[in-house]
UniProtKB/TrEMBL annotation:
The keyword Secreted does not apply. One of its GO terms (molecular function) is hydrolase activity. The keyword Signal applies. This is MBL fold metallo-hydrolase. GO terms for biological process: antibiotic catabolic process. Residues 1-22 form the signal peptide. Residues 47-220 form the Metallo-beta-lactamase domain. InterPro entries: Metallo-B-lactamas, NDM-1-like, RibonucZ/Hydroxyglut_hydro. Belongs to the metallo-beta-lactamase superfamily. Class-B beta-lactamase family. Keywords: Hydrolase, Signal.
């Protein structure tokens, strides 16, 4: 079951948009909510995890998963609050986080993202342009909700060039976007401004600003803590060291793939970013 699900997620990643085949599978997706504090929830379904803040006068959500799930996500949020959804924040531009921007925008939800996210979505003819961000920013933004506000910080050149981490108010909770894949090789989108060293630096910068009790909604995987995130950084640094050594020994990229990483990293491999793809990213 687990393997099957990863397989499907991988397929969707590869093709970006939900194909007819994948669309049929959307019917089976269940959106599940987990309460993290008085006003903060994490929703899982298919695609990047969703964060929900139930404010005094409206709901703010972070990320929107794959296209085709908007009705289910709206229904799940309606279970948590009678308030209207006011804002949707995108942690970055990938389709498994922005796929339902348009149906939410058509309901009057304002879409907020880093300016590079808007640029990339505007250039993608497969993206429903109704879902383009209407509020963009460069470095930091505070999104007011009642008397509180969510804090958004841009981190350049990590997973993409438009990554944003979100701090929820009055709760020790953050949404890390795809700067956090739990116990899996991360996708670092080198074709969209992603960078391995930047990814490490950005994760370390966020980790320095949180504590051991902070609840972290990862882009992909289960609710986590700082120690889980450090495990990812250590893996990236150690595997990069292995690939650098192979490179220094004169191995080509293909030869490095053939030699492989040491056995301790086997469990980090998954269908979308398997060991080969991770080695090629590092190389
Ligand atoms: Zn992503």
């Amino acid at each position: 079951m687990r393997g099957l699900k990863f397989g499907l997620i991988s397929l969707l990643f590869c093709f970006g948009m939900a194909s007819a085949h994948a669309q049929a599978n959307m019917d089976d997706v269940e959106i599940k909510a987990t309460q993290l504090s008085d006003r903060v929830y994490m929703l899982t379904g298919m695609g990047g995890n969703i964060g929900v803040y139930v404010g005094e006068d409206g709901v703010v959500m972070v990320d929107a998963q794959y296209k085709g799930l908007a009705d289910k996500i709206m229904a799940a949020i309606a279970e948590l609050s009678d308030q209207p959804i006011k804002s949707l924040i995108n942690t970055h531009f990938h389709g498994d986080h922005t796929g339902n921007n348009a149906p939410f925008a058509r309901k009057g939800v304002r879409v907020i993202a880093h300016e590079n996210v808007k640029t990339r979505l505007a250039a993608n003819e497969k993206f429903d342009q109704d879902g383009l961000p209407t509020v963009t920013f460069d470095n930091r933004l505070e999104v007011a909700s009642g008397a509180a506000s969510l804090k958004l910080q841009h981190y350049p050149e990590g997973h993409t060039d438009g990554d944003v981490v979100v701090w929820f108010p009055n709760a020790n909770v953050i949404h890390a976007g795809d700067l956090f894949f739990v116990d899996r090789f991360p996708f670092i989108d080198l074709n969209a401004g992603g960078n391995v060293q930047g990814y490490i630096d950005n994760v370390r910068a966020v980790i320095d600003s949180i504590d051991g009790e902070t609840q972290i909604i990862p882009g992909h995987g289960t609710l986590s803590k700082r120690s889980d995130w450090l495990r990812l950084v250590h893996m990236i640094e150690a595997t990069r060291e292995e690939v650098m050594t192979m490179k220094e020994q004169g191995l080509t990229e293909d030869q490095a793939v053939e030699q492989g990483l040491s056995a301790q990293w086997k469990d980090w491999s998954w269908s979308f970013i398997n060991e080969e793809r991770w080695i090629r990213t590092l190389y």
